[in-house]
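Need a sequence for this fold. Nothing fancy.
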């Protein structure tokens, strides 16, 4: 379920204040944040935010296409290492015993 339009997008206040002060001073610094739940606002465009994924901070450069998404979408928390080798080695298809000769 999405958030009510009446409330507007949620962004942590401390993150919005940091970006706002950087915009006023025309600074471009990397801001470290644990706030994966914050929605990306148009004011964030052009800045780099280092989003924590549970282990390390992943730098995310904010573009116009990211506005409206959450910060956590751009720093994956899990690493896919492929499917198991056993499943790939298993025979594909049906067994030969069930097929009837014509």
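Here you go.
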């Amino acid at each position: 379920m999405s958030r009510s339009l009446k409330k507007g997008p949620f962004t942590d206040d401390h993150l919005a204040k940091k970006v706002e002060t950087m915009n006023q001073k025309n600074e471009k610094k990397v801001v470290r944040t644990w706030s994966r739940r914050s929605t990306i606002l148009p004011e964030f465009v052009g800045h780099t935010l280092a989003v924590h994924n549970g282990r390390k901070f992943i730098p995310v450069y904010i573009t116009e296409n990211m506005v409206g998404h959450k910060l956590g979408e751009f720093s994956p928390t899990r690493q896919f290492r492929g499917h198991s080798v056993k499943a790939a080695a298993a025979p594909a298809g049906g067994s030969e015993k069930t097929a009837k000769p014509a």
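For context: The chain has a mean pLDDT of 89.
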